[in-house]
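Just scan this pair:

***
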Amino acid sequence: MRWDRLFEDLEAQLALEDLRELDSEVADRTRRERALLDVHTRLLANVGVTGVALGLPGRVLGGRLVDVGPDWALLETAPQRPVLVALHALRAVSGLGRGARTPSVVAKRFGLGAALRALSRDRAVVEICDLDGRPATGTIDVVGGDHLELAEHAPDELRRASNLTGRLLVPFWSLGSVRRL
């Protein structure tokens, strides 16, 4: 009987040690997988979520996360009022659920330039804000590889030569957000 108890105790200790090793391995793999996540994949998993807040320098935009590209997020701050936010301008994000989602090959290629070209094609009147939150209004005339050119005019006027107050070249790295007016 004493031998039986001794062997049972040894078996229990081995089983406990195996369980500890498995827990440690799972925790290590979880840490490694989390280390591979980036902001883009976290945001992508939360498309459609309401109550997301994107912190930009000097301001916070809140609303429903509509779409996410490799270097931009589209946030609906009010019904039919989306704001395109450059991911490099983010300072913090709140309101996200857990999880991450890998983007499709096509989604990986639809960068900030492509989103801005869509606004330019529509000849939409926009308000752009730089990283310091300074606004400028007008129509995007040109979208280059790393910049946009804004024909500045009042938000309630059409883009006409007589309405232009200036031309503004904005490098993508200094762009914070773009809102269609």
User: Anything to note?
Assistant: The first strand starts at residue 50 and ends at 56. Helices lie at 2-35, 39-44, 105-109, 112-122. Residues 135 and 154 are 12 Å apart (CA to CA).
